[in-house]
Amino acid sequence: MRLFVAVVLPEPVLDDLGVAMDHARALAGADTRLRWTIRAQWHLTLAFLGEVDAGVLPELERRLARASARYEPMRLAVEGGGAFGSVRKARVLWAGINGDVERLRQLAGSVSAAARRAGIDVAEGRFRPHVTLARLREPIDVGDQVRWWSTYAGPPWLATRIDLVRSHPEVGAGERPRYESLRAWPLGRPGGAAE
């Protein structure tokens, strides 16, 4: 099964991001090279685990529970935007994350380490917290979009848990992967002080 670990965005954040996405789609007009993500796909990936054997799940879940307990809830907000690749030859358009980003990076590192200790080969790389807005069918200039998203600041929220999410593959042409949360763990120890 194809898995990743994520922070799920709360409904008010999704609502606000949805309004912003409507504006971004209008700015793009009929440009079909942008394959926009949908609300059900908006999340903050901490670690992409790839294909994982079901036999590894008990150890992975045990280690993710330990990792999540080490971090108190953190204040975050969707803010700004950018592109992977370059703005002129982008492959992915994204919205950024602001707030307790350094602690979020540490959490992402702990989640990746937990997965590696459970026997999963997690790719090393720089963690860049973001929400994927669109994938591009071919590299294109998204300067207008990046400028527009640079002014976006969504409502802040308190991230209180991490989720282990299964990605069900696309079924046919034009279909999108479907995400299913398999399990969630609260951030912080029970009875610990929340921010």
Describe this structure in words.
The protein is globular. 28% of the residues lie in helices and 36% in strands. Strands 2-6-5-4-7 form a 5-stranded antiparallel beta sheet, sandwiched between helices. By secondary structure, it is of the alpha+beta class. It has helices at 11-28, 57-69, 101-117, 143-149; strands at 2-8, 34-36, 43-51, 74-84, 90-99, 130-140, 157-159, 161-168, 178-186. The chain has 4 helices and 9 strands. It has a single domain, classed as Cyclic Phosphodiesterase, Chain: A (Alpha-Beta Complex), CATH 3.90.1140.10.
Overview features:
single chain, five-stranded antiparallel sheet, 195 residues, Cyclic Phosphodiesterase, Chain: A, 36% strand, alpha+beta
Write the layout of secondary structure elements.
Elements: E1 2-8, H1 11-28, E2 34-36, E3 43-51, H2 57-69, E4 74-84, E5 90-99, H3 101-117, E6 130-140, H4 143-149, E7 157-159, E8 161-168, E9 178-186
Antiparallel strand pairs: 1-3, 1-8, 2-6, 4-5, 4-7, 5-6, 8-9
